[in-house]
């Protein structure tokens, strides 16, 4: 569990944010306030608990360079949520505080969308939506061909699933019986230009994944206990898996939770929102 402590344990109510989750949210806002640049705050805040469970308990990330090819892979397809990924990778020692503090500055290694850098834990350059799942399927198939045992996790947004390339990749995952890939859907029901149900309704999402051949699981996306169960409980069948994570855009932002207003925003000052954390 990479050093989790009693202070990191989930509260009794899964919809409450624990201290570690709040600290990561505050860190993101601190970086943006210091740099005085905008960032995709809402999309980042909806995936923090998912990333914590992945990096604490699911991903095998050997430090031994001789075994580096056997590492599990995580692809953040909704690359605009990268601030959450950077902050979690900072906690894991893969990104330095100095690097994160330079977010989006000239010549800095960390920009507004992730760029592939394995030494920092970033497996793919993403941000053009609909690309991450095809990349992840290619990785999983490559593992099959080369006899590697690594697992691939990929996180997509529900709005991102408007992109047809996702479904082409999903069909291929089923065709090849890729049991070594898990898709996580950030089901926050919001995208940049409005509620997902207004832009392109997809009320049949679970049935769609199931009908094309995926194992389908659900989890409240801010409840780490439930996420652990969804990700770590053995499956009864083979083939690819999707975990639909019911989340809230901007989780932790008080009155702005579930609102598109903080999809992309500049933080005027940390004092303006410090009471939230």
Furnish the topology, listing elements before pairings:
Blueprint lengths: L18 H17 L2 E2 L1 H5 L2 H11 L14 E4 L5 H10 L5 H5 L30 H15 L5 E6 L6 H12 L5 E7 L2 E2 L2 E2 H4 L5 H8 L2 E6 L3 H9 L8 E6 L18 E2 L11
Parallel strand pairs: 2-3, 3-4, 4-8, 7-8
Antiparallel strand pairs: 1-9, 5-6
Protein name: Transketolase
Pfam families: Transketolase_N
Organism: Bradyrhizobium vignae
Written description of the protein model:
The protein is of the alpha/beta class and 277 residues long. The chain has a single domain (17-276), classed as Rossmann fold (3-Layer(aba) Sandwich). Helix content is 35%, strand content 13%. Helix 3 crosses helix 10. The longest helix is centred in the first third of the chain and has 17 residues, at 19-35. Residues 29-263 form the Transketolase N-terminal domain. This is Transketolase. It holds the Pfam family Transketolase_N.
Strand order of the largest sheet: 2-3-4-8-7
Overall structural class, as computed from helix and strand content, comes to alpha/beta
- CATH topology value: Rossmann fold
Span between termini: 25 Å
Number of helices: 10
Quick structural overview:
By secondary structure, the chain is an alpha/beta fold.
Name the features.
disordered N terminus, alpha/beta, single chain, 277 residues, two-stranded antiparallel sheet, 35% helix, Transketolase_N, Transketolase, five-stranded parallel β-sheet, Rossmann fold
């Amino acid at each position: 569990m990479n050093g989790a402590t009693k202070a990191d344990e989930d509260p009794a109510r899964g919809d409450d944010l624990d201290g570690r989750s709040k600290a990561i949210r505050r860190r993101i806002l601190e970086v943006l306030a210091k740099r005085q640049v905008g960032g995709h705050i809402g999309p980042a805040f909806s995936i923090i608990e998912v990333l914590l469970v992945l990096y604490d308990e699911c991903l095998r990330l050997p430090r031994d360079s001789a075994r580096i090819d056997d590492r599990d892979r995580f692809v953040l397809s909704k690359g605009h949520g990268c601030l959450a990924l950077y902050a979690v990778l900072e906690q894991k020692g893969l990104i330095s505080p100095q690097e994160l503090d330079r977010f989006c500055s000239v010549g800095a290694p960390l920009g507004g969308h992730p760029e592939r850098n394995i030494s920092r834990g970033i497996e793919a350059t993403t941000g053009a939506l609909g690309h991450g799942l095809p990349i992840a399927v290619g990785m999983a198939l490559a593992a099959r061909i080369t006899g590697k045992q690594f697992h691939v996790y990929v996180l997509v947004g529900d709005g991102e699933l408007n992109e047809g390339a996702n479904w082409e990749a999903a069909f291929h995952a089923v065709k090849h019986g890729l049991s070594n890939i898990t898709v996580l859907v950030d089901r926050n029901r919001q995208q940049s230009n409005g509620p997902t149900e207004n832009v392109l309704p997809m009320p049949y999402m679970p049935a769609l994944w199931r009908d094309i051949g995926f194992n389908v699981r659900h989890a409240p996306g801010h409840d780490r206990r439930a996420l652990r169960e969804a990700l770590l409980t053995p499956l009864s069948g083979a083939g690819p898996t999707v975990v639909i994570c019911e989340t809230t855009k901007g989780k932790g932002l008080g009155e702005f939770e579930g609102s598109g207003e903080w999809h992309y925003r500049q933080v005027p000052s940390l004092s303006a929102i410090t009471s939230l954390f």
